[in-house]
Structure formats: structure tokens, C-alpha cells
Specification:
The protein is α/β, with parallel strands linked by helices and 142 residues long. 30% of the residues lie in helices and 22% in strands.
Amino acid sequence: MKFNETDICNKVYNDTVYALKRSELKTCLTDVKKAIVYIWSPFCKSDACLSIGAVQDYCNENGYDLFVVLETYDSEIINVQRSPTRPYFSIDHLYHESNAMDKHWKSFTKELTGKSKPKGRYMEFIGGKHSSMIDLNKLINK
């Protein structure tokens, strides 16, 4: 994992996970017309947890930029995923106040969405502003 990387918004996929601060992701989102932030977990068994490749295909077909933020990292599971266009990101736990991941995620999604308890793994942004939490499983598997 790389910390304190410059020009993080313009990185492309390259087998590196970049730690980012919430403010950095917000900056990246303002630079694109439409984006989906996918909070991805390698151990999620829910129908809501789609493959990164399926989500990237949906984004490509519908004009979204995809930002995959890893809840946790597992190299075996991530290596069988089809690579997204952008690199994988993770919360910069060295910058943020606690190593408690639950606290990070609640704070992270609250700051991005402006909602106190956002539910879901897919956050849609239009013009850098949070639009909605979407259920991609329903859209992709209709």
C-alpha cells in the first residue's frame, strides 16, 4: 500500500493500493461528471456484493467513473477479480484518528454522502455531489 501519493485522482490501475484521505476522494469526485464509489469487501457473501469486473462493465456502459475502495485487502481474492480502470483505494488509517475500521467506514461514508447512516456499498455522485445510494445488484441483474 502506498501512502501520501501525489496526483491520486489521475492514477490508473497498476497493482498498487493507494491509501487516501476522505478529502482526496472528494476532490477526485469533483473532477468527473458521474461516479460510483464501490465499498468492496473480499469476504462479502451478500447479493449486493458484485464482482469488480461486473461493476466496471456497468460503469463503462452507463458513463460512470468507478472508484473501488477496499474495506480490507486479501491478495488471493483480489487477484481473481478483473481489474478496474482506476487503482484500488483504501482508507488512509495512518492519517485518520483510529485503527478501528468500523469507525473509519462510518465516518468515511458520512463525510462523502452527508448522511448520518448511509446504507449500501454503492454511492452515486453527479458533478462531485452525492446523488444516492444505489442497488447495483438490481440494475445489473434485471
